[in-house]
Amino acid sequence: MSEPVNTFEAQQQGRPTGPLVQGYEVVIGFETHAQLSTQSKIFSRAPTAFGAEPNTQACAVDLALPGTLPVMNKGAVARAIEFGLAVGSHIAPRSIFARKNYFYPDLPKGYQISQFEIPVVQGGSVEFFLGDEKKAVRLVRAHLEEDAGKSLHEDFIGQSGIDLNRAGTPLLEIVTEPDIRSSEEAVAYAKELHKIVTWIGICDGNMQEGSFRCDVNISVRKKGEKAFGVRTEIKNLNSFQFVTKAIEYEFLRHVEAIESGEPLVQETRRFDSTTGKTYSMRSKENATDYRYMPNPDLPVIEVTGEMLSSLKAEIPALPDERKKRYMEEYGLTSYAAEQIIIDRETADYFEKAAAKTDYPVLVANMILTDIARLQQPDEPVIPISPENLAKIAQMAGEGRINSKTCRLLVQELWENNADPEQVVREKGLEQISDEGILTQYAKEAISENQKSVSDYLAGKSEAFQALVGQVMKKTNGRGNPVKIQEILKRIIS
């Protein structure tokens, strides 16, 4: 028997893996719901803040009370267009809303207002790297719609509660072509999409709060076949880890069914993170089942050339553009640039600091080491001003302070954002580079550590580092390590 091809699936009891997956490929498409960062809902003035008491953020429009009418949120339209511009989509000059008819207890109107035939964002692609290989996933559309409410079961015996706080929350549903062929590709695409929507500020990307949710459509076929297999949809995956596990489980479930002759049905499934398995929720509807019809209560969305130009000017340079510029303009390595652009706040901070010093590489290094060590996930704001970080980098680049003092200054300024140059003066932290002083300390260290000298001459490199450490100790950590090494080697040789 061949080795299991999937480490997660190998952990599932009694399920063989290797023989079952040979000769099959998975075909994956994504539907991602990004909650737009507006202060109010898409068709009402009700707020969208997370965590409020049930039914305290639902107005008459959200409750579908008789006589109420929806009013389009201009900010939601603008954010949808900004996304389209960022991924190279066609922006429809005229788009319309439809009624998507289905019954959920938490859908008061009995239909969801969404876009269908003519969405505002059409086509485009999301590019990303999988290892060193550049890939692209084509987009079918990105359409505006309202979210439904939420059914609550845990606190009710034999009944369900309805919370309509989310009803009417503005969503941008981003739909891909079935271009993805592995769980690794799927996660890489999802992470890049997450980076884009948070970078341009249209979504906060909080997956735990439901601001960024992934629906994964999966089918399986033998390699070389053109036709798609039976499609299943896994709903509401709210972590990249769950995306991986759900795809891998579902892929092998399909393969096992095909191999055993068990019929597969088109259905919607949910992923249980505690078991690592998917479970059937309901049969999967087709578009005709929703009885789409134009919504008569909302006018056509018209996008003018002036509106497009204005929104395009507001979109910041995207991560890949910045990465390229940081490497070319500031001399950052590919890895350092990639880490700096991991979020927009860090990138903006780096740029502000880099503009104030002759040593941008040192700025990047401090952000990725000293600052990263102090920063907490729940405290994203860096208390050190970019100007002061630039001053630290400038002093280090000019040889006035060493790397140890850099770390001390970052720690000091993290708690008290003082002038770093003043701190260096007051605490006597300036690096000692004087040849005469360092030579005297070096001679003392050699005299007091003859064994280390002998070991170094015998070829033990760690003995030399011990001597450097002794000289640094004599300078209270302020010695110029490069000069110390040069002097020690000159004296010993």
Q: Could you name the key traits of this structure?
A:
493 residues; alpha+beta; Arc Repressor Mutant, subunit A; 3 domains; 10-stranded mixed sheet; disordered N terminus
In short:
The protein is an alpha+beta fold. It is built from 17 helices and 17 strands. The radius of gyration is 30 Å and the shape is elongated.
Q: Would you write up a description of this structure?
A:
This protein is an alpha+beta fold and 493 residues long. The protein has three domains: 7-305, no CATH class; 317-427, no CATH class; 435-492, Arc Repressor Mutant, subunit A (Orthogonal Bundle). Helices cover 40% and strands 19% of the residues. The chain has helices spanning 7-10, 18-21, 74-86, 183-199, 240-260, 305-314, 319-330, 334-340, 344-354, 360-374, 386-397, 403-415, 420-427, 435-448, 450-457, 461-474, 481-492, and strands spanning 24-35, 90-91, 94-95, 98-101, 111-114, 121-122, 125-130, 133-146, 150-152, 161-163, 170-176, 212-222, 232-237, 267-272, 277-283, 293-294, 301-302. The strands form four sheets. Strands 1, 2, 6, 7, 8, 11, 12, 13, 14 and 15 form a ten-stranded mixed beta sheet that branches. Strands 5-4-16 form a three-stranded antiparallel beta sheet, with no helix packed on it. Strand 13, helix 5 (240-260) and strand 14 (267-272) form a beta-alpha-beta unit. Helix 3 packs across helix 6, helix 7 crosses helix 8 and helix 8 (334-340) packs across helix 10 (360-374). Residues 1-20 have low confidence and may be disordered.
| Record field, number of beta strands | 17
Structural class: alpha+beta
* Helix segment tally: 17
Q: Name the beta content range.
A: 15-25%
Categorize the overall geometry: elongated
Give unreliable regions as ranges: 1-20
Query: What is the helical fraction, as a range of percent?
Result: 25-40%
- Termini separation comes to 63 Å
Provide the residue-averaged pLDDT.
90
- Characterize the biggest β-sheet: 10 strands, mixed
User: What integer value in Å does the Rg equal?
Assistant: 30 Å
- Please indicate the count of domains: 3
